[in-house]
Amino acid sequence: MQQVFILGVNFSEQKLVSKALQSFYALGPRACERIMAKYTIYRLAKVGSLAPKTVTSLTAELSQMTLDSDARKIMQDNIRRLKDIGSLRGRRHAMGMPVRGQRTRTQTATAKKLNRLDRRN
Amino acid sequence: MASAANAARLNILSCRQVVRLPRVARPQLIATPATSLRRTFTSTTARRAEEPPAPTTDTDAAAAAANAVDPNFADLKAGNIDKLQGSRILDYAAKENGYLDFEEFVSTHHKVGADAPSSIPKVRAFEQTLKEIDEGPRAEKSSFWYDEDDPETNTNEHDEFDEDDITEMAHSKLEEVREMRHYQRLAIWELPLLSKLAKPFEPPTEKQVLRWRYTTYMGDTHPAEKKVVVQFAPDDLGLTPVQAEKLKKLAGPRYNPETEFVKISCESYTHPAQNKRYLSNLVDDLIAAAKDPKDTFEDIPLDTRHHKIQEKPKFPKEWLITEDRQKFLEEDRRRVGLEEYQAIQSGELVDGKQAINNYLAKKMEDEQRKLEEVVEVPKGGAAKPSTWASKSGKARR
Amino acid sequence: MASANSLRSLMRPSIPVAPRLYPIISSSFSTTTALSAVTGRAPKSSVVTSTKMKKNFKKGGGSTSAPMKKPNPGERKAFRKRIQLSNNSALAVEGVEVLKADTLAQSSSAGKMFSIPDEIIDQLRTLEAFKATQAWNLFRKPHFLARKEAVELGSRLENAAKKKEAEKIVLTGSKLSGKSLAVLQAISYALLNKWVVINIPEAQDLTNGNTDYAQIPNTEPAVYSQPVYVLRLLQTIYKANKAVLESLKVEKDWSLTGLQKGNSLAELILTCKESEFAWTTFNALWTELTLPGRPPVLFSLDGLSHISKLSQYRDPAFNLIHSHDLALVRTFVDALSGKTKLPNGGAVIASTSGNNMQFHPSQELVLAQLEAGQSGKPIPTPDPYEKNYDERVYESLKNTSVLRIEGINHDDTKTLMGYWAASGLLRNVVNNHTIREKWALAGNGNVGEMERVALLTMRM
């Protein structure tokens, strides 16, 4: 199977472009829509159907953005800062509990999964 | 005790032959004297019981009443007034207990006493009854509702219900019926009299273009009382079409394009009169502004977005059975019926079931024939299978 | 005795009724029979043995017993869109006239059934003129009823070809009234008369953003082409109009596409193998077809309201692209509005869709105005406070004529139901009673509703 490189990542030709773009951290549906509109890529386009020129410009476009590890680093720094100044939000992050005053009796699965000092995703 | 008063009463009693009114049965009160009469232990003397009232005839009684009662009251001295007072209290007590007055009570009880040989216990019982009635029945300590903190309260009523009266709810129901009847009587007898006050309707004249609405709560105070509403049709104001259109545009959402009325209300002030004054000024201002030729607003279309006209489905006019329509329908039916009759006669009528049956029958026939052919000519069995289409039966197109 | 028995049913059973048998518990979807051992055991034990509770129930991770084969890509869509034009269980109907070139233009053919000749069935199928929602699959052969409107349409097409003018028609009407079928009839007329037919069977495919798009270079304001769709459309045009196109020679110089001077238009289409050149080729073909001396062209589109609104595509500035800025749609709209003249005559037919309708105030207004103008009624005025009017839509439709298609009359119903009965699908005598009953049930003769009432019911 052919592979397409976008920003150093290998994507299968069968993959939807929107899926491929959104696989990058800090690139959600809205940013993805805008990028696709910019290069006139339609909604159901697959990676294989992209012209090589478009792939190059996509890579160039993405390289301008703070994605993946950079974006993660920013977020982790923010959490670290909250923890360092000793705020409640920082502590809640460290405890793996909801940060913004939600209830904790039930429905804290997301917080338990995500909230920590070195947050991954 | 009240012996003097008793004497006076007895006198009166002997003189007046009062007819006893039929009473509503009061169970407790009749029952209690009966039981008390059976008592054998009393402490009071039975002097009154020994004097039965003199049996008199009707005519005598009337005469006696005229003679006897008057002197009795005429001879009242200052000392006797107290006794009379006491007798009044007794009267009252007797009335309370369902007798006409005290005399009647005594006569009732005395009759019993008179029939039996007079005895001290019976007299005492009688006295006891009197006392009880005077003071009210004594609270029974053993009763369920007896309260030590409040010994005076009579709880007997709650305890003793002999199931010979209708319930309180039923009484109130009866009361309700009585009330309704009262109003029905009013409606029948009093309401027709109101028509005397009626005034004939006078349609508003051309000068009365404003419709005012006030609210009254029939003497009650209510926060909505002060509200005043005015309605008017811009076309009634005697404006030119352009001015009327401008007025409609100025009225904005207060203009109803369906009824073509402008409706404005005001409840900003405390009194209806003030609100009315404000509205009347406002209407004057509106008319003045509409008449102002400086800007006629002719370039602005009338905005009716605030009002959605809901169309009510009505019976369509085309569906009405008029004579022409009736004639047409009859003719049409006759024509169609004739055509159908002719189709049946000539066998042109298409029948789905028939078509299927014909097809199946023909198919079976063909197969039969094919089978026979095969039997007859085993070698040359090249009978070309005819297509379905060529066999389909009665299709007429 | 009888009364005693009847009363017994009211009594409670004195003997306790046997408790319900335990259901045979097996996998939810399995074709194998359950083993008897399973039934003997109480179901409770199975609950007890599974001590470990499943924590989260994900959609995918279930243990389905029978692994189902997934349909191949596109298989389900093909199944959904398949057109079946024949039913061997239906009876063949004899004595139905075959459609000829001039049949639909003759007023005498109104109210008759016609069978579609075999030679154009394939062409119609290629052009996707048959719809999956139409009831072709019930009958042995495709037939249609030439109703009054169809004959009017046919005669107008004939006139257009004679006068060498473009007939611009918008077909409207309520749901299931036969607008798409009228388009099919127009296409059949055109095919039988050797016209060139271009058909866009579903306008929504163009504007719902599900096909490839690209900006056409050097266009200001930007116009967008849809290469993949246009390529497929070109192939459709080639297949459907092969005979006509092969007889036409290229007149202009298209050497850029590697075409020789004397080649035919069919070859012009065939030069296009890549979707990149699809639009150029289509443009060239359209230019060639609108040159004088060519056969008349029928350009039809179904689902007008979808090209009257903003499409789902976005331009680089992230604004929604107006449907008229899509090149193919613009070609059609220009033809419909009369901006592009058809010097050889022909017709541009746009059909609204009843079910898949997008409300557009401008379109509603202009169609209502045109209809009122045609019937001499007071013309509705635009609402001054409506903000969603679109001048482009108004302009595109104002030169058309509206042909409203509604229910059919009693006589046509009789013909149609006679055909149904002769096909063995309507198991009734086609008499006055049946006809008027179905006609009334179908909302005054709406054909689609009549099919539902008469053919698609379970009651026989």
From TrEMBL, chain A:
Superkingdom, natural source: Eukaryota
Record's GO cellular component terms: mitochondrion; small ribosomal subunit
Protein name as it appears in the record: Uncharacterized protein
Keywords: Ribonucleoprotein, Ribosomal protein
One GO MF term attached to the UniProt entry: RNA binding
Ranges for region Disordered: 90-109
UniProt xrefs under PANTHER family: 30S RIBOSOMAL PROTEIN S13/40S RIBOSOMAL PROTEIN S18 (PTHR10871), SMALL RIBOSOMAL SUBUNIT PROTEIN US13M (PTHR10871:SF1)
InterPro entries: Rbsml_uS13_C, Ribosomal_uS13, Ribosomal_uS13-like_H2TH, Ribosomal_uS13_CS
Pfam families named in the record: Ribosomal_S13
One of the GO biological process terms: translation
Similarity comment: family membership: Belongs to the universal ribosomal protein uS13 family.
From TrEMBL, chain B:
Small ribosomal subunit protein mS35 mitochondrial conserved domain span: 200-319
Any one of the GO BP annotations: mitochondrial translation
InterPro entries in the cross-refs: Ribosomal_mS35_mit (IPR019349), Ribosomal_mS35_mt (IPR039848)
Pfam families linked: MRP-S28
Domain of life according to the entry: Eukaryota
Entry's Gene Ontology cellular component terms: mitochondrial small ribosomal subunit
Molecular function terms, GO-annotated: structural constituent of ribosome
Start and end residues of each stretch annotated as Disordered: 137-161, 376-397
Protein's UniProt name: Small ribosomal subunit protein mS35 mitochondrial conserved domain-containing protein
Organism, scientific name: Clonostachys byssicola
Taxonomy of the source species: Eukaryota, Fungi, Dikarya, Ascomycota, Pezizomycotina
Automatic annotation (TrEMBL), chain C:
Subcellular location(s) of the protein: Mitochondrion
UniProt GO BP: mitochondrial translation
Chain segments annotated as coiled-coil in the UniProt record: none
InterPro entries according to UniProt: Ribosomal_mS29, Ribosomal_mS29_fun
Disordered: annotated span: 55-74
Pfam families xrefs: DAP3
Record bears the keyword Cytoplasm: no
GO molecular function annotation: structural constituent of ribosome
Cellular-component GO terms for this entry: mitochondrial small ribosomal subunit
Origin: domain of life: Eukaryota
Chief subcellular location: mitochondrion
Alphabetically ordered keywords of this record: Mitochondrion, Ribonucleoprotein, Ribosomal protein, Transit peptide
Similarity annotation: Belongs to the mitochondrion-specific ribosomal protein mS29 family.
Protein name: Small ribosomal subunit protein mS29
